[in-house]
Specification:
- There is one protein chain.
- With 245 residues, the protein is of the alpha+beta class.
- It folds into 2 domains: 129 residues, Jelly Rolls (Sandwich); 89 residues, Winged helix-like DNA-binding domain superfamily/Winged helix DNA-binding domain (Arc Repressor Mutant, subunit A).
- Helix 3 packs across helix 4 and helix 4 packs antiparallel against helix 5.
Length: 245
């Protein structure tokens, strides 16, 4: 399981037992590769599966009037896709490969079986789902009440925090293989506006961007600008049930 980004991410929050790691391995048996631009499922599809991202980036998007789109979330190595909509059979958003991506698809029933035999994993999955919901609420607040620069700062910091939850490293350099159009659709700005703001943030020595690499040059100022709270560095596991042998 050393090659499982999902296990690595879960281990950041909980010291998994061999039995729990084997249960995760059972979910990751069938990796599939999709090319950039591929649609993994469409909004409104009858979906009975979940996805674990091994490599590459995907995104959740919904279509707005006049053909515009809103990107709800970016997904990368170590992410579980579909858990937020598990209460419904119809997909609440489309999942699209933002780059070439490798994912493992598994039926929802397999997750139910895992929860039945490993209640501590069920508690961890639930806690992580709520953590991501709060992060999304933070971003919605930024969209509604912040200027464009603060919106971008919030997005960059959120991506960095999620990546660090997998890597365990506090690296200011992060890989974001996204276009300015992708960034704009995630924060409600035009591509032209995003380009202007990135230049401004670079001139102010807040960030630097070189193609797909972004460096958080002055992270404290970015945090202050975005009023960002890291929702991914730790989880309160004091209420979790004991691990089963």
């Amino acid at each position: 399981m050393s090659d499982s980004c999902f296990v690595v991410r879960l281990n950041r929050y909980l010291d998994l037992t061999p039995s729990e790691m084997n249960a995760i391995a059972h979910l990751e048996r069938e990796p599939r590769e999709y090319h950039s631009g591929s649609t993994l499922w469409q909004e409104g599809d009858d979906v009975s599966e979940l996805l674990i991202v091994h490599h590459g980036w995907a995104l959740s998007e919904t279509r707005l009037p006049a053909g515009k789109r809103q990107i709800l979330r970016f997904h990368f190595s170590g992410d579980l896709i579909g858990a937020s909509g598990i209460a419904f059979r119809d997909a609440a958003s489309s999942i699209v490969a933002a780059t070439d991506v490798v994912v493992c698809r598994f039926p929802r029933s397999a997750l139910g079986d895992t929860f039945n035999t490993h209640p501590r994993l069920a508690a961890l999955f639930f806690a992580m789902s709520q953590m991501e919901s709060i992060d999304l609420a933070d971003r919605l607040r930024a969209l509604g009440r912040s200027e464009g620069k603060a919106r971008l700062a919030n997005l960059f910091l959120s991506i960095a925090a999620r990546m660090r939850a997998v890597s365990g490293e506090n690296n200011p350099v992060i890989r974001i293989p996204l276009t300015q159009s992708d960034l704009g659709d995630a924060v409600g700005l035009t591509q032209v506006h995003v380009n202007r703001l990135i230049r401004q943030m670079t001139e102010e020595k807040l960030i630097t961007r070189n193609r797909s690499t972004l460096t958080l040059v002055d992270e404290p100022r970015l945090i202050e600008l975005a009023r960002f709270v890291d929702r991914f560095s730790a989880i309160d596991s004091s209420w979790f049930p004991a691990a089963k042998a």
